[in-house]
C-alpha cells in the first residue's frame, strides 16, 4: 500500500494572500508606482493602473514560489513557521499552481496591455527572485541577498518603462538605490534574528562571518547607497524637494548605520540600534520615492 497524504482542509483566501508576502509588497508596489509617476510621460490611467497591478501580481507570484520552494526552511524558523505551507494549511501543489498562474498572468497582461519592455523586466525580476536568489544563492552563500536583492530593485524601472517604453538614468539610479539599500536593510534584521537562520542552516552573514563583520558591511554598503540616493539631485535629474528629503533622510540613515557599525554586540535596550535601522530603512525608501514624485508634480 502506498502511504497516503493527510487530507488538508481547503485553504482560505487569507492563506493565498499570505503566500504573496503582502507587507513587503506594499513597498515593492510603492517604488514601482513612484517609478511610473516620476516618468516624463504619463500613460493613460487605465494602462498605468494595469501596470501597477501587474507589478503587484508578479511580485506576489515571486513571493509564492519562494514559499513553495522553501517550506522546509520556513518550518524551522520561528518567524516563518506559521506560513500556510509549513503550518500545514495548504498543500504544496496548490501553492505552485497559484504562483505559476499568477506570474504568467502578470507578465502576459503587462506585455499585452502595457508594453514589452515592462513585461520583460517583470519576468526577469520574478525569475531573479525565484531562481537566482531562492533556488541558487540563498542556501549557498552569505552574498545571497547582495546579488539576489537585485530582484526587489527592479520595480522602479518597471514603472518607468511602463510609462515610457524604455529605461533612463533616473530610474537606473533608483534601481541602484534599492539594490545598495538591501544589504543594510536585511543585515540589520539578520543581526537580531540570527539564531533563526542558524537553526535553519541558512548561511546569512551574521551566522557565517559573525556580528562584527556584518556590522562593518552594513556601514560599508551605506556609503555607495548614500551616493546613489543623493546623486539624482546634483545631476539635475530631480529638484530641491527630492534633494532636501534625500539629503536629510540619508544623513539620518547614515547616522543609524554608523551606530550599528561601530558596536560590537547588541544593546539590551528595547529599541536596539539594529532594530531602529531596520525599521527606519523601510520608512526611508517610502520617503525618498514619495519625494521623487512630489518633485515631479509639485516643483
Ligand atoms: C533579498 C532581499 C531582501 C531580504 C532578504 C529581505 C528580508 C526581509 C525580512 C526577513 C523581513 C522581515 C519581515 C517579514 O518576514 O515580512 C523584511 C521586511 C520587510 N522588507 Fe525586506 N528583504 C529584502 C528586500 C526588500 C525589498 C527590495 C523591499 C522593498 C523594496 C523590502 C521591503 C520590506 C518591508 C516593507 C518589510 C516590512 C514588512 C513588515 O512590515 O512586516 N525588502 N524583509
Ligand atoms: C517585481 C518583483 C517580481 C519583485 C519581487 C521581488 C521581491 C518580492 C523582493 C522582496 C525581497 C524579499 C521579500 C526578500 C525576502 O527574503 P526571503 O525570501 O529570504 O525572506 P523570508 O525568510 O521571509 O522568506
Can you characterise this structure?
The protein has 2 domains: 153 residues, UbiA prenyltransferase (Tetracycline Repressor, domain 2); 132 residues. The chain has 14 helices and no strands. The chain starts with 12 loop residues before the first helix and ends with a helix. The model has no long low-confidence stretch (mean pLDDT 95). The structure holds protoporphyrin IX containing FE and farnesyl diphosphate (FPP). The site of farnesyl diphosphate has 19 residues, from helix 2, helix 3 and helix 6.
Task: Describe the protein's topology.
Layout: H1 13-19, H2 22-37, H3 45-69, H4 71-76, H5 92-114, H6 116-137, H7 144-148, H8 155-164, H9 169-192, H10 194-200, H11 205-208, H12 211-230, H13 240-261, H14 273-298
Helix pairs in contact: 1-3, 2-3, 2-8, 2-14, 3-5, 3-6, 3-8, 5-6, 6-8, 8-9, 9-12, 9-14, 12-13, 13-14
The structure holds protoporphyrin IX containing FE and farnesyl diphosphate.
